[in-house]
User: Fold this.
Amino acid sequence: MRTLSWQEFDRAVEHLAHQARQVPGLTGIYGVPRGGLVLAVALSHRLVLPLLEQPGPGCLVVDDVYESGQTLAPYQHLPGCHVAVWVSKAEPNWWHAAEVTASEEWLLFPWENRAQAVADEQQYRESRT
Assistant:
């Protein structure tokens, strides 16, 4: 399990904020529950954009990790929507990432509880077999 730090989080926020500033007309930030919420709040503050309760046209949808793509698939065709993640375990195609890794190692984000992350990993791996 790879443990990510708050310093790495700050660098990811800055990277994603820089990318988002290149997109004209963003209407707000939507964080995919639950992994994207902390990132969404940070980007909302950094970009001075509203934190949205629902995704909508022209918004930035954010999540912590792109693993299989199942979580982010519903946002792929939302009109004018842009999608970004902190860590992508696949080469970004229609989404953006602060970091891309080929590692299949489970990620422990700074806001997560280690014991719960271990259980989440086990559940995820079992669901894929």
Remarks:
- The domain at 2-127 is CATH 3.40.50.2020 (Rossmann fold).
- The two ends are 19 Å apart (CA to CA).
